[in-house]
Amino acid sequence: MSTAPRSLAVVTGASSGIGLELAKLAAGKGYDVVIAANEPDIDIAADILRSIGVTVDAMQVDLSTRHGVADFYRFVADRQQPVDLLFANAGLGLGHAFLDQNLDAALHVVDTNVSGTISLIHRIGNDMRTRGSGRILITGSIAGFMPGSYQAVYNATKAFLNSFSLALREELTDRGVSVTCLMPGPTATRFFQRAGMLDTQIGQGAKDDPVEVAKVGFHAMMNDEGDVAVGLKNKLQSAVANVTPAGFLARQHAKMAAPGSSNT
């Protein structure tokens, strides 16, 4: 007697932080999991998830390239299970003034956060729409509400994702596919270390727990919410940003993100 395949969740940027916590939540709900990241720690994450008792496949892949996205999509398709949940969480940050940044590094942020994200969503989202079911969670950020002085490229990519997710959600109304945007604030992950921002006010300041951030995002996704900011402070900050002149926001962000600002 044949049995129906188990439900499948796909999580990018899952080697640590919010992505790993989202994958744990999916596994805890009985979903088999396919995870990806561009670093070898993804195999350690896979072992953690397997201990929950679900089937886990992991791929180390650079999702900033269309070739990498295509390889990962084939990797997922090899499971021959429909993707019920897609957590588009892969992302990079980059600190310092834009003209002082290495251009290749800045473009890599754009390719990872924007191009790779929408390429994967286009592939898996089409499968979901054809099937008439599925849920997508996109990790945006409250950073997308303000011009990110000394973090200009990163904030701009998150502004793109915040907007893109709500537009896609509207396009998929009545098609059986939900889209949710998770908009965390500063979170206790390796983000600021990787972005070269440990000497900044924002890098040294208080941060949210990735476990709690993931819970908020997962709950919002499963309840078909359009977007969710994490924590009262971040909710207030995003609301204020919507009615505050952009120039003022840019100056305020500079105070938080300028190199050496943690010492002033």
UniProtKB/TrEMBL annotation:
Belongs to the short-chain dehydrogenases/reductases (SDR) family. One of its GO terms (molecular function) is oxidoreductase activity. The keyword Iron-sulfur does not apply. This is Oxidoreductase. It comes from the Bacteria. InterPro entries: NAD(P)-bd_dom_sf, Sc_DH/Rdtase_CS, SDR_fam. Keywords: Oxidoreductase. The lineage of its organism: Bacteria, Pseudomonadati, Pseudomonadota, Alphaproteobacteria, Hyphomicrobiales.
